[in-house]
Amino acid sequence: MEMKTITRRKALTALGLGSAYLITGACIPGKSGKRHIITLSYDDGFEKSSVRTAEIYEKYGLSAAINVIASAHEKRFELPNEYHAWPVGDFNLWNDLQSRGHEIMPHGYNHSNLQKLPLEDAQKLVNKCLDIFSRELDGFEEKNAVFNFPYNASNQAIEAWIKTKVKAIRTGGSVVNPLPHPGQFRLTCISHGPENIDQHLEEAIHEFLKGPSGWFIYNTHGLDEEGWGPVSSVFLDELLDKLSGHESAEVLSITQSLNQIKNLLP
After folding, report:
1. Does 172 reside within a domain?
2. Partner of 98 at 20 to 30 A CA spacing, among 60, 67, 81, 135?
3. Residue 31 belongs to a domain
């Protein structure tokens, strides 16, 4: 895959007419009494993208939600597909980003599709993933973890089992979840790709902000041209800037949302 540099001008042009909602400042005004939580959940742990994503989030005092394949940094790791052919971070980076306030959570042991495996095999891979996190990520505890399913693919059997181990899961489904509430475990999201997701993400947020209160979870991956369905770094910067000025929107990581349940309930 050819690597290119995306300039600010090119990135803005690529957004199309729909970008007026966020780029020009014509953001939908919030209505009194509404709460719109927005979580962008970044998968795969590409090194360059993760560092840049953290920098952009820090610019606005926000916490990025970065989900890491536990063994991806090891030399023996086999790429699951061509969309993983970029350098990834290791746990030195993940500990550093976590110490800066970002959320680092598991995204599987080797990115296998757990939905397609026999339950026993899926359990073994989850346990290997969580074991690595327990050893390598400072302060990691399974009971407080959010397990982000590879491919957003799960089934009832693996979900029932993993519920005994972690705090919450992210899997495929509706982009809008109920506002955080006690006992909330199964969180759903959408994703888009393999092409750039700027316009798709913008349109999804636009529709969400028009609607009732809820929790919007959108699965993203790398920045610019890294990974499956990347988002442009310039667009992400503009997006967070506009959302920070929206009266009903709040950009939070998953754990931030779950940890603030009492404050977030209507």
Report:
1. yes
2. 81
3. no
| pLDDT, position 188 | 98
- Domain range for 61: 40-264
DSSP character at residue 228: S
User: 265: which 2 tokens?
Assistant: 């309930």
Mean pLDDT over each residue of the chain, to the nearest integer: 88
Q: Is 203 inside a domain boundary? A: yes
Beta bridge partners of 214: 36
User: How far, in Å, CA of 62 to CA of 136, rounded?
Assistant: 24
Question: For residue 147, what are the β-bridge partners?
Answer: 169
Structural domains counted in the chain: 1
What is the tens place of the pLDDT at every residue in 217-257? 999 999 999 999 999 999 999 999 999 999 899 999 999 99
> Does residue 169 belong to any structural domain of this protein?
yes
State the first-to-last Cα distance of the chain, in angstroms, to the nearest integer.
47
Alpha carbons 207 and 12: distance in angstroms, whole number: 20
Cα–Cα distance for residue pair 108/69, rounded to 1 Å: 5
Confidence check: pLDDT of 5 > 70: no
CA distance 134 to 188: 25
Distance CA 247, CA 58 (A): 20
The two structure tokens encoding residue 45: 């742990």
The whole-model pTM stands at: 0.86
ω into 150 cis (within 30 of 0)? no
Residue 85 confidence (pLDDT) = 84
- pLDDT confidence of 4, banded at 50, 70, 90? very low
| Number of helical H runs and strand E runs in the chain | 9, 9
Beta-bridge mates of residue 40: 218
CA neighbor of 148 nearest in space, from 218, 233, 229, 53: 218
Pairing of strands 186-189, 249-251: unpaired
Query: Measured between alpha carbons, how far is 189 from 148 in angstroms, rounded to an integer?
Result: 10
